[in-house]
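Lecture 7 notes: from sequence to structure.

We start with a single chain of 557 residues. Read the sequence below before looking at the structure.
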Amino acid sequence: MNTAVGRFLHITDMHVDPGYKPGSTIYSQCHRYPPHTANSAATMSDGHKHTGRFGIPLAKCDSPIALINATSKYLQSNWADKLDFVIWTGDSGRHDGDPEQPRTFDQIIAGNNIAVHALQSVFGDSIPVVPNIGNNDISPHNELAAPGHKTARKTFEQLSHAWQNLVPKDQLRTFLYGGYFAKDVVDYDSPRAGESTGITALSLNTIYWYRANAKVGGCRAKDSPGLAQLAWIRYQMRRARARNRDLILLGHVLPNRDNYRPTCYHGYARTVTQVVPAPALRNASDESVIADESDMPVVHAQLFGHSNVDVWAFVGQEAKWISSLDPLGLGDQQNGSMGDNRLWWERQVDEETGRFGKMIRNIWEATSPDTTSPSDFYADERLWENMEDDPPVQFSASESSAEIVPISETTSNISAPQRLPSDFVETLLKEYKQVLVKGPESQQNLGVTTISPSIVPKYVPAFRIFHYLRKRPESSKQRWWQLPLGTLLDYDVYWADIARLNKLKQNPTKFFTKLYRFSDVYKLDDLSLDSYLKWAEKLLSSKSLRKKFRSLTYLGT
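Now the structure, written as tokens:
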């Protein structure tokens, strides 16, 4: 094993369902046996599928306890001593799809308790586990009120209890306020002078940016919870620079124009890509020269779940929406400094003044879990209608990039969730093409987001193991010498063929198997932005590779 390479697990969307019954019907959400039988051993005469012990692929059922236990046992046997940390991007509660058994918030917390136990029984306290809030970790699903509302306070408090000690104590006040927090996960091995010293993970609350959350507005109002989280990210990026650390961002819902409100999406893209250099800066012609770490991106990865697929996407800002993030008109040359195009809230974070300066001092830097804060930080019992929302938008049917076009106020509410395109992969390929066509000048404002497949068998249970550069190679002739510490290098996808495993009479000795390794399939050396751009070029130029990409997106199903 290469000692310069570290590894971490990305696991997501467990959707634990203690009420799952093997042999039940899929149309009952796997909760009830057919009407004509009272036990799981009976065969069905009406043609409907039986559910198996470990779940059923390609159905709307959640994860049985047997699947969670088998996953935990496999990780214990194969990865407990090989990982540096664990990224867990939410949705441990079951779906609320059975009208005869409505889901309760207590059941959501119980699902999180089971998931925590499954992970901690493997990794204990020695390997950091970073949890995250999913849209099915709140009740009702998709709906989360602004900080200070009693339902938001209850949600954050109960999740912090369920997650036990996974949220650092010095981050509890921030988490109990907004549902997000920072956690140091690894220190690099023997970094050189001037190099970053380790990785800090930022667990984001993507529900405050999510279109489907009708309890909050967009990210333009000064009291928007989504805007406050953007400001917190900027604060954490500045803090990481001061501490000489890199960042991994993790969340549940993928940032794109379908999922996020427009000002939230473009605010997110602006915030996380402002420090990302042009791809050319990542490729020194002389491999004996280490690139200046100060020029390298502080954000090495953006990891998400929710969609159950195995895929990646570019994220980038569009200038026409940035003005919506600065309704006070304080951008550009407002402070008299040439070349300063900061927005009003970015300036407040950088200079620790105004509303966000107060939040830095009283919440984000506060080490006490006490939730008492100045009253102007909270909007007790306030409904989202009192917040300033984004303008209504529609998506152009003629453009696969889903360009945002403001339309009249008579259109449907922006909070309505958008459906995924019927051909998700084809849409992604067209977006890759548009990125390449725009050329290097626009690519310097790009980031890359990845979605890992889920444990719940929407397709089949699966997870990713990422490889990253933890230690500088000893010789300039060695691979990865020119890359900054923390760069993602590769990943493996492991899957469980539960259709086969369900037929076994005894417990399987090896539950998960490797489906593929990124570098073996796509012949690239790392997961830097430059490599993703090359990957996009490869996909667009090879029909056979596109076919493979489509198959792997849905885990071969």
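The first strand starts at residue 5 and ends at 11. Keep this in mind for problem set 3.
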